[in-house]
Amino acid sequence: MKNTEIEETLYDRIGGQKGLEHLLTHFYADVRQHAVIGPIFEAQIQDWPMHIKKIAGFWSGLTGGPSLYGGGLIAKHMPLHLQAEHFGHWLTLWAFQCDRTLAARDAEMMKALANQIGDRLKQFAMS
Length: 127
Prior knowledge:
- The protein has about 130 residues and is mainly α.
- It has helices at about 10-15, 15-35, 40-45, 50-60, 75, 85-100, 105-125.
- It has a single domain (about 15-125), classed as Globin-like.
- It has 7 helices and no strands.
- The radius of gyration is 15 Å and the shape is globular.
- The model has no long low-confidence stretch (mean pLDDT about 90).
């Protein structure tokens, strides 16, 4: 007997592009107010709505939605001179918003993806 049920992706469960943009809007509001990482982001990003759309495109592909990000993740972060402390703050804010915004299972998955991204960026940014 063939199973014809299609498993819903993380992207679908969190509300697709609209859900990602909602999460990211709240996350970056926290980032912008943060004493340590806020100034780093404020110095680099002039158009926050455009940035949120771009990052939502990045997360879209990671969560099983359409791949909408053009690449350059590592190169974009190299000039920021990020340190371990910065990644810790970023991940703490991300975890807070995921837990606040998403169902528990989905929040855990998003946090795990963020940790993988953070580890990858740390490899290059701090070398």
